[in-house]
Amino acid sequence: MRIAIDYTAALSQGAGIGRYTRSLVRALLAAEGDAYLLFHARSGQRPALDGLPAAVTTKELPLGERPLLTLWHRLRLPLPLEVFTGPVDVVHGPNFLLPPRRRAAGVVTILDLSFLLYPECADRGLVAFLERAVPASVAAADLVVAISEQTKRDLVCLLDVEPDRVEVVPLGVEPHFRPVEDAAALAALRARLGVVEPFILSVGTLEPRKNLTTLLEAFALLRRRGCTHRLVLAGRAGWLCEEVFRTAERLSLGDAVVFAGYVAEADLPALYSAADAFAYPSLYEGFGLPPLESLACGTPAVCSDASSLPEVVGDAALLVPPTDAAALAEALERVLGDAALRSDLRARGLARAAEFTWARCAARMRAIYHRLAPG
Predict the structure, then answer these.
(1) What is the pLDDT of residues 334-361, one digit of tens each?
(2) CATH number for the 2-172+357-372 domain, one of 3.30.70.3270, 1.10.3210.10, 3.30.470.10, 3.40.50.2000?
(3) Do the strands 143-146 and 166-168 form a parallel or antiparallel pair, or are they unpaired?
(4) What is the reported pTM?
């Protein structure tokens, strides 16, 4: 069977959908028996496809990402993918969108519907595009993959998708996310960050949906109560992120807050392991991989009780209402001040994270491909 997967995000995005696509494909390629074609938009220079077996076929399409989005999803020209790739049995769009096909079955992954639930948290142009393109891709797909039960409920309620057309396939945690106990590696990380003091960590793009202003409010409360920890925010600056910086300035937090920028995936296990606590007060997540990664590294987490986060972390993290800064501060204070609680959360977290593997995710996706393949 020949399976075509849109690999564009894997090459153009370091985090988020890019990480999802790379991790899924690596796990898919670990099993034999199927032929994979990874197609991607033209990038101007030949991108490196690191770590892929030589037997895997890759195909650079003749247009860049923006022109392809315009042709396929704005103008909706019915130019089938097979014109560029030749015959395939299944086409998988892991990034919300599914290109038109001739005969191949179509699978589209929907990671979340935040653009419908929290449109004020994203760029208006992107929201307008997704509001048109995502429902069209969902309608055109033979099967829709949701990465959590929450996302499936949102698809059913917001886009009126029949429940039996949606299959939940949770994400996984890469094996290298585990406790780092190498003192030299942890010291080197701290030196790069310029953080000697113990710290609280949050990982994710700086954007309104991550609700970092509430985290800053909670952190300011902790500092006023005598907490000497610093707060490290790791993630690139996203859309509408200015309010995060304004809030830190308004609260006079100064260098108590470290804006670390984007942190490479290879450095994340040490970053998680070096933190005394992980905070993730997001307003909405389709899955929420950073909290799960923090649990895999043995770091106790405090998360919001919104959307998919409770189903992902289970009883292995403390949950608080997303916009309640006082409750978030209290939960972090408990974690930092109670050694027995930290030990219990560490044990629960390691066990919980072990339930989510990319091998399991890939096996479920392979079963979907085989079920849908024509003939």
Answers:
(1) 999 999 999 999 999 999 999 999 999 9
(2) 3.40.50.2000
(3) parallel
(4) 0.93
